[in-house]
Write a structure and sequence with these properties.
386 residues; alpha/beta; Rossmann fold; 2 domains; 14 strands; elongated
Length: 386
């Protein structure tokens, strides 16, 4: 460029410290295995410099296809990417390094293959939301059963039921020891002190939040898995979960682990799940023959059918890292299963509304704040607001 000056890699760090704008193009989308030493020096200088950093296509040092980061990488304030979003721009740990994203259309659409990942937007979610009709009753709207809570964690029952009711369920049947706490918060709940198979008719089950690891808890999980309706398994329900038993179910199953629970199910270290989130969620879905919602800084939803794009939830916020928010998500997603949404859609819509509710509630927030704001998120999506 006119007025430009060529420097060697050795001169780069010093030049970066004097710059007002840094354009990162150290590696391209085919880069694998991390930066070489000269690139590491440039990335570290850019991170320390006061200049704005704009990455070309993706921050150097991240894997475009998986979001993995091997060692040092460029931390961009913004990324301008061309043709299509690369998976690594949307999935942590790389997504955190990309900054604000801008897609530039260069006419590649007719030549692109099937997508590996998807990110639902307001219009997509609005088209999937259940819409009660004039003749709807509580059964047609969806009756969800919740097996959650224990003497040690009674709040989990309240939070899961709150998520289910706010998620549009026509009614909630609660099974467990937290009935008094649930009724104090939600007197409309149908409470049972017996076992799940004695509770009555449901269109979907949610099992596991705050349930504990006791023989009674394990029996309850087994009864729910033996049912002929969709089942969402979360938290304590995931302990020692038998992949063959889940795969043998005729009705859909949704698993909602966080990274630690996913690591236990896969036999991996938690750090490996965090570093290889896309691989982890796909591996879980294939192993269990279930839809898997992997919670985290970027929540992913994988379907067991080979070739189905993984969905990345775009509405997440760090304020959701609060006790009990996952219990609310379980109930919310269970209500969507009971409303007869496809399990992949139920998990995706549940995550979207959950994240949007947290954004609308604003932080600091508690899990019940998220549940109470789900109706506002629902209306926000319906209205087309962004």
């Amino acid at each position: 460029a006119a007025g430009g000056r060529t420097v060697t890699p050795a001169d780069g760090p010093a030049a970066i410290t004097r710059a007002r704008l840094v354009l990162d193009g150290i590696t391209g989308i085919g880069g694998k295995g991390g930066l070489r030493p000269a690139g590491v020096s440039l990335a570290e200088a850019a991170r320390e410099a006061p200049a704005a950093v704009v990455a070309v296509d993706l921050p150097s040092g991240v894997d475009a296809g998986t979001g993995e980061v091997h060692g040092a990488a460029v931390h961009a304030d913004a990324t301008v990417t061309f043709g299509t979003y690369k998976p690594g721009l949307l999935i942590d740990p790389a997504a955190e390094l990309a900054g604000a994203l801008r897609l530039v259309d260069i006419g590649l659409a007719p030549f692109l293959g099937a997508p590996e990942i998807e990110a639902l937007q307001h219009a997509d979610v609005a088209a999937l939301l259940p819409d009660p009709g004039g003749e709807s009753d509580k059964y047609s709207r969806g009756l969800v059963g919740v097996v959650a809570g224990s003497d040690r964690y009674p709040g989990a029952a309240v939070l899961a039921v709150s998520g289910a009711l706010r998620g549009g369920a026509g009614a909630v049947r609660y099974v467990g020891s937290g009935g008094a706490a649930v009724l104090a918060r939600h007197p409309e709940t149908l409470v049972s002190t017996g076992s799940p198979h004695e509770a009555g008719r449901v269109q979907a089950w949610v099992v596991g939040p705050g349930l504990g690891d006791t023989p009674d808890a394990r029996r309850a999980v087994g009864e729910v898995l033996d049912s002929q309706v969709p089942v969402l398994v979360d938290a304590d329900g995931l302990r020692g979960l038998d992949a063959d038993r889940v795969r043998a179910r005729r009705a859909p199953t949704v698993l909602t682990p966080h990274a630690g629970e996913a690591a236990a199910l896969l036999g991996w270290a938690r750090a490996d799940v965090e570093a290889r989130r896309l691989e982890a969620v796909r591996s879980l879905a294939a192993r269990f023959g279930a839809t898997v919602l992997l919670k985290g800084s970027t929540t992913l939803v994988a379907d067991p059918a080979p070739g189905t794009p993984v969905r990345v939830n775009p509405t997440g916020t760090a304020w959701l890292a609060t006790a009990g928010s996952g219990d609310v998500l379980s109930g919310l997603t269970g209500s969507l299963l009971a409303a007869r949404l496809d399990p992949r859609d139920a998990a995706s819509v549940g995550a979207y509304l959950h994240g949007l509710a947290a954004r609308l509630a604003q932080g600091p927030l508690a899990a019940l704040d998220v549940a109470d704001t789900v109706p506002a998120a629902w209306r926000n999506v319906r209205s087309g607001a962004s």
